[in-house]
Amino acid sequence: MSEADIREKLGLVHVYTGNGKGKTTAALGLALRAMGNGLKVAMVQFMKAPQFYGEYEISKSLPNLTLLPMGRDCLVHEDKVTQADIDAAQAALAKSKELLHSGRYDMVIMDEVNVSIRFDLVRTEDLVRLVKERPPRVELVITGRYAPPEIIDLADLVTEMKCIKHPYTKGVQARAGIEH
Ligand code: ATP
Ligand code: MG
User: Fold this and answer.
1) 71-106 tens-digit pLDDT
2) Contact 23, 16 (CB under 8 A)
3) Substitution candidate for ligand 1 out of 15, 17, 19, 24 with most atoms within 8 A of CB
4) Separation of 109 CA from ligand 1 center, angstroms?
5) For 20-52, what is each residue's pLDDT tens digit?
6) Pocket of ligand 1 (CB under 6 A)
7) Which CATH number fits the domain 3-170, given the four candidates 2.40.30.260, 1.10.10.10, 3.40.50.300, 3.20.110.20?
8) Is 52 left (phi over 0), alpha (psi -120 to 50) or beta?
């Protein structure tokens, strides 16, 4: 199948949500598959800084993947959100919109944007508008716990990762190469 035929069928919205592990890595797996079909992928990471994440390191050697971690260099605390946290998330939202409309990408992933909404860094209505006004033939992937019902309604594909077990509960801390 030609790349033009592949692109012809794009344009759906995915949501990966829920409290189990696998949302960001599912999006990265999809990106890998898309790139294997000659597609170009952009991933904007809300609330994540470039340090520590293996996917950012490998993205530097993948010409068809643009990965932009746009969080600050510290954790966002839900009960103590700062103006700088809001500014960073708003910049990530604006960048996502720009990439979506740039014509340069076949897939745009907004990683953890649902969490940004939950923490009041981004408004649900702004993400709803971005989804509704997206250009045709760009596959849009939205990840993060707490997907708002308005976004679930708009999506074509919704998967909820459900935690059955996680080694964290028996004291295994986040591991390089597995959690980050
Ligand atoms: P991954 O990035 O591994 O695909 P995720 O995107 O589904 O995980 P997040 O909700 O973004 O998970 O959580 C951020 C971090 O917490 C990740 O390092 C993830 O591996 C880890 N994590 C995910 N689910 C759980 C859980 N149920 N208990 C503890 N830690 C978790
Ligand atoms: Mg994640």
Assistant:
1) 998 889 988 999 999 999 999 999 999 999 999 999
2) yes
3) 24
4) 17
5) 999 999 999 999 999 999 999 999 999 998 777
6) 19-25, 112, 145, 161, 163, 166, 168, 174, 179-180
7) 3.40.50.300
8) left
How far apart, in Å, are the Cα atoms of 171 and each of 6, 52, 62, 71, 157?
45, 20, 35, 27, 34
Distance CA 130, CA 143 (A): 15
Q: Among all chains, which residue has been given the structure tokens 């408004």?
A: 123
Amino acid in position 32: L
What pLDDT, on a 0 to 100 scale, did the predictor assign at position 55?
Answer: 96
Judging by DSSP bridges, how do beta strands 41-45 and 157-160 pair with one another? unpaired
